[in-house]
């Protein structure tokens, strides 16, 4: 009896952890909005729990900031009378000067050990050397910005030394003048924004291009997918600003590296960029994981779809349970085989915590992040981006299973120990980079999952091209 109570408590605790994960990553996690409705239950291994009503209770309705209006002008004719301020939202100060300085120092110095973070092994610089852009002395970089790092972040102060630290490391490696970093922060109360703002002089000194804005767009209120799309577009806006045209010529092959609030090592990011180049891919994605129970579970199941069947990476039966999460690619032998061999494989859609994709269709004004249209499957903005990529002939989308990510330093360490650090996997004896035989056509139909309880297949190109 006692054991059963203990077990029940343990199961309840695990579910709480899952819930907090899901609710915590609200800025970027791609869960169906209905999933967040109070009372909706998740089931894992024969236990279940309801989303507490308080977890998602709406606060006062915030208006969309002028920052939002600024991006709206690029996607629609909505122009406001007032010029948006450089920072629509004032940045509150919650950290002591000392602590803020300590965070900045930790981000800029990968060897700084004062603050615990996921420890990343030294990586094989030879593997990525060819990606680096030399700063030609005198000649001010004729090739423009080749690597555009983009993030939307909320309330993740503790992760900054690892996450932004790794990006800074990658920027140093790739050539600071060939890189830009663009961050949109929103609705943090833990000092995330002020640390990111305080980074500016350091990044200027590094001679890289830094865009940072705080926005009060809140995906928890109103149309969640539209707002997430808006935030993602905001992060890309500097690249699409006509004033910056020279920095981002469409022919420059600029790679956007769009990253969630994950504990990533520098080589995780470099590997995604390398594989995009090596495979000739339009987009490469990592694998992201969450610890539901003892074993890690693939996280981005709402977005990711296989190439063969347009299906989810693991099966979620109509009751919504994740019991089959261990059985990845159960109905696609090719993906399954490549996954276990640590070789990249083509998919219909992915995001999975971190991506590297071509900026071209954005620069050519063919795509933006968007919400579903009327009559189109209710789905997340990353899946819609992949759909639009396919539509415009950018269907070389691949998952790179040597890059495995989690959403905190501790869990990041756990997942790296379970799956292997990228450097170790690609450096393993007998591992050789394998190419992909790209398939030119997407699956005829793709699984639509407005929520786990409602699933059906829909034509991959439903409502295309839109208006
Ligand atoms: C500064 O950091 C220390 C230790 O990390 C913490 O105990 C303290 O509360 C922080 N102070 C502020 C003002 O953030
Ligand atoms: C542009 O990127 C593609 C794919 O990554 C690559 O095959 C091609 O060589 C690149 N072109 C230039 C000019 O760098
Ligand atoms: C569910 O239980 C099975 C069998 O005990 C176990 O192998 C699996 O890892 C569990 N799932 C999770 C997410 O922990
Ligand atoms: C959608 O794709 C199918 C092939 O999967 C094709 O037959 C059909 O013509 C396409 N529809 C549009 C509107 O392009």
TrEMBL record:
Keywords: Glycosyltransferase, Signal, Transferase. Pfam families: CAP59_mtransfer. Residues 1-20 form the signal peptide. It comes from the Eukaryota. The keyword Glycosyltransferase applies. One of its GO terms (molecular function) is glycosyltransferase activity. PANTHER family: ALPHA-1,3-MANNOSYLTRANSFERASE CMT1, CHROMOSOME 8, WHOLE GENOME SHOTGUN SEQUENCE. This is Cryptococcal mannosyltransferase 1-domain-containing protein. It comes from Sordaria brevicollis. The lineage of its organism: Eukaryota, Fungi, Dikarya, Ascomycota, Pezizomycotina.
